# Entry
Amino acid sequence: MNMSEYVMIKCPICHMEKKVEIPTNLIDEAAHLTAVLIPKSIVCEHTFHAFVDKNFAVRGYQKTDFELPINIQEEKIEETTLLESELNDFENLKWNISPKNLKYIFRGIMFNKPTVFILPDSRSELKEIVERTINFLFNDTFKHNLTILLKSNYKKIKSDFKNYLVIGWEKILRDKDKIMNDQDMEVEEKIVRAFFRNASKTDAIINLEFEIRNIYKISQNVISIIENLEKDKDIDIMTLKDRLRVQFSLDLDIQYLRYILTIVRYYFKVYVPVNDSNEIQEFLDILSS
Ligand SMILES: [Zn+2]
# Structure
């Protein structure tokens, strides 16, 4: 058997083609497809995934700038259910809180961390606005333990929050579990940016609530697949992706699915017996250096 195969790879963005050497042992025999990461400078200047089957046939490509799922059964909330006061709250949020702050708060909640958000004393009017908007967004999904305090109040009762994740004004003040890593917060980044960029007040809110609910529901779908696995059996990430498509009509981007798996671990505290072939990435990184 050959140690490697030359496979014609075509970039899904610029369509440049090149033969790439892929070692045989990197293709998972048990999996239907293996996601091979093609870093930039291997074929062209783009980074993308090639999905390769057992016979080294390329079955598809995916850009690494992933998309949020679109084929969702869930329904968005009705525009008519939004109250005038809720619209105002969200407008206030948009104009007074940075995307960065919102992103940090979301991650704290979705990673199930008791969180304290400290506001400058001069922004006391924001306390209730943040509370109400967060309650609205996470209403029937993630339970949260978020405390919002003015800086002067926080200083007085600081010791009550020893084990908390502490978010300051646009910066992280304490993150013991190291969950705040700007490089791997792309999902939060995407949904928060979309909220800030949406010119329609109502759509911005409806879509944001929808994306949060999707993360919650899809995590539950993943858990139901994991729970039905044979005892002590692993599943590889591509098979999981396939099963989500077949059972729940979900076509998820691999990067988004990885995010969901983190939520399953951190929020739902469910063990995730999923194989993810990161060694392929390392191999191709060596090739490109
Ligand atoms: Zn390209």
Observations:
- The chain has a mean pLDDT of 89.
- Residues 79-210 form a domain with the Rossmann fold fold (CATH 3.40.50).
- The chain is about 40% helix and 20% strand.
